[in-house]
Structures are given as structure tokens and as C-alpha cells.
Amino acid sequence: MEEQLSLIDLVLHASFTVQLVMLILLLASMLSWYMIVQRAIYFRNSQDDMIRFEEQFWSGIDLSQLYREGNERAADGQTIVGMESIFRAGFKEFSRLAQQQGMDSEAVIEGSRRVMRVAMLREEERLERHLPFLASVGSTSPYIGLFGTVWGIMHSFRGLANATQATLATVAPGISEALIATAMGLFAAIPAVMAYNRFAAKVDMFTNRYDTFVDEFSSILYRQAYALRSREKKAG
User: Fold this and answer.
1) Separation CA 87–CA 92 (nearest Å)
2) Poorest-confidence range of 22-31, 34-43, 78-87, 223-232?
């Protein structure tokens, strides 16, 4: 009875090109899993921070006090991201523009909204970090594995041409080595595609929440700007 080759033996006995393909797919899989775990933790923390800030923002706290608390945490070295970062950018610009004489309420709000939109774009970039890599792994890994399979099968049949007796046992090990490349390509691609789809949906959810917050916060700032300009007119 012939000894069956194990999976490791098949990999070790594969041609150099097939082994190179397997190595590329292994590295891509390891990197994608690292990014999947990193993104999952980041999205979970971002969602917790967003919920915490929304509860604090709608609790009736004074916006100036909320901004000062953020300053204190930033001074302690804490990085402020997410919805609070958008709030801080908008409130800072609102405070600056509101102090300028002769600027009407519409101009103040438009300037604040513009700054918040820029801050929101930066937050979207943070959310989408590593997602292009996952998309690339998910879309290219099966083809890379297929290339290794085709190359391995070609290599097996070239060896068969020089053999004195052509049997299935002669080419079976080479074909098995080649098919491992396809399996590794799918192993790398499937988790990457599933993670990308899930994270892309998360990005859409965050973006929609940020966009709604910008509209709601702009309405609050507009009322404050209108009240401030009304007091200035009465005082003048």
C-alpha cells in the first residue's frame, strides 16, 4: 500500500511557483484577519463612544460645558473622534464666527456646517481604513489561487510527458498540490468578503448618523445665532 501524502507534504513538494502563490495567499489571509479584528474592535468602540456622546448631548447639558469637557480630555492626551469630533469642529467655528460683527445668522451657520462636513469626511476616512485592502483580498485571492492551480497542473502534465508509464497515480500528487492553491485562495477570500460587506454596512450606518447629527446640530446653532443677533440688535 502506498503511503498517502499529508497536506504539509503536498505543500512542501509543490513547485516553487505554486509555493510562492501559497505564501502570498497565506500572508494575505493573515493580514486580512488582523485588519478584520482591528476594524471590529474599532467599530465597536466607535459605536459605544457615539451612543455615550449622543446621550450626553441630548441630556440638556450646556454646549459650552460639553466643549470644555472635551478640551480637558484632549489635554489629557485622549484622542477625540467620531460624532464628538464633528461637534467640536462645528461648535468651535460657530463660536468664532458668532463673535464677528456684521455677520448674519445664515453666514454663521453655513460656515459651521461647512466645517462639520469636512470633519465628517475625516471620520469617514477613519472608518473606511483597511476596507480597500479587504476588498482587494476578497476579489483577487481566488484568481491568485486559480493561477497557482493552473500552473501546478501544467507542471504535472509536463512531468507526465517524460514518464514511461502514464497513470493517475503519477499525476495525482501534482494535481493535489495545485488544488491546495485554489483552496487557500478561497480561504483568504471568503472571510475578507464577508468582513468587507459587514464593515461597509457599518460605515453607511455611521455616515447616516453623522449626517443626521449635523442637520440637528445646525438647527440648534441656528436658533442660538438668531437669538444672539437679536440681542445685539436690541443692545445696539
Assistant:
1) 8
2) 223-232
Higher pLDDT, 104 or 51: 51
DSSP-derived letter for residue 59 is T
* More reliable by pLDDT, 235 or 200: 200
Q: Quick one: cell of 73? A: 480630555
Angle in degrees, 0-180, between the axes of helices 63-75 and 83-98, rounded to the nearest 10:
120
* Residue-level pLDDT at 1: 36
Give yes or no for a contact between 17 and 148, defined as CB atoms under 8 angstroms apart. Answer: yes
- CA 121 – CA 115 distance, rounded (Å): 10
What number is the average pLDDT over the span 18-45?
93
Exposure class string for 66-87: b at 16+ Cβ within 10 A, else e: beeebeeeeeeeeeebbbbbbb
Whole-prediction pTM value? Answer: 0.83
d(CA 137, CA 126): 20
Residues 6 or more apart whose Cβ sits within 8 Å of residue 21: 144, 145, 147, 148, 151, 181
**In sequence order, which residues have a C-beta less than 8 Å from that of residue 59 and are 6 or more positions away?**
none
Residues 6+ apart with CB under 8 A from 83: 49, 50, 53, 54, 209, 210, 213
* Angstrom distances, CA of residue 157 to CA of 21, 170, 171, 212, 232: 19, 9, 7, 62, 89
Distance between first and last Cα of the chain: 104
Element (H, E) at 97: helix 83-98
